[in-house]
Every structure is written in C-alpha cells, then in structure tokens.
Amino acid sequence: MIGHLLNARDRDNFAAAAQALERALSAGHYVIPLNYLPVDWVGVSSELERPEKTPVYGYDMNSWWQEPKN
Q1: Residue 56: its pLDDT value, please?
Q2: Which helix (H) or strand (E) holds 66?
Q3: 44: closest CA among 27, 23, 65?
Q4: What's the rounded Cα separation, in Å, for the pair 49 and 51?
Q5: Residues of the domain holding 18
Q6: Rg (alpha carbons) of the chain, rounded to whole number
Q7: How confident is the model over 6-32, as pLDDT tens digits?
Q8: Which has fewest Cβ within 10 Å: 23, 39, 48, 58?
Q9: For residues 29 and 12, is the Cβ–Cβ distance under 8 A?
Q10: Where are the alpha helices (DSSP H) in 1-70?
Q11: CA 45, CA 42: separation in Å to the nearest integer?
Q12: What is the spatial distance between Cα 23 and Cα 43, in angstroms, rounded to a whole number?
C-alpha cells in the first residue's frame, strides 16, 4: 500500500492510496514494542483499576478490573 502512495502520479491516485492505507491502519489494534527501555510503558483507559502495588515481575493486566457504573 505504501508503494501505491509512492508511485501515485496524480492527486486522485494518491488520495485513493492514502484512504486505503488509512482504512487498513484504522481497522486494527497495534503494539509498539519498547523492548529496549528499562521501564514498562502501558497505555490504558482511565476507567480501569489496578492493584496499588505493582508486582515485582511487572504489570499483570489480568489482575486489573473495571468498576461497574451506577
């Protein structure tokens, strides 16, 4: 798909390729690996609760929960 963007010779073809790429990227969930960092970065919803203390082995997202809305 990126090749179509790079090879587009007019505005219409470029716009069509950009829209196709945007649709493909918007359809998925992605993980950006940060394996080289000595810390864990976690993006979460503010609605999630987690234990006060992080376990020594790192985040355990299976122990997180969401409070029911009243």
Answers
A1: 82
A2: strand 65-66
A3: 65
A4: 7
A5: 2-66
A6: 20
A7: 999 999 999 999 999 999 888 887 777
A8: 39
A9: no
A10: 2-7, 11-26
A11: 10
A12: 23
DSSP conformation class of 69: P
Query: Is residue 40 predicted with pLDDT exceeding 80?
Result: no
Q: Buried (b) or exposed (e) across 10-26, using 16+ Cβ within 10 A?
A: eeeeeeebeeeeeeeee
Tokens 């979460």 sit at which residue?
Answer: 44
Q: How many domains does the chain have?
A: 1
Q: How many CA atoms within 13 Å lie on the side-chain side of 35?
A: 2
**Cα–Cα distance measured from residue 25 to residue 59, given in angstroms and rounded to the nearest whole number:** 27
pLDDT for 16: 96
Q: And the tokens for 54?
A: 């992080």
Residue 62's pLDDT band (cuts 50, 70, 90): confident
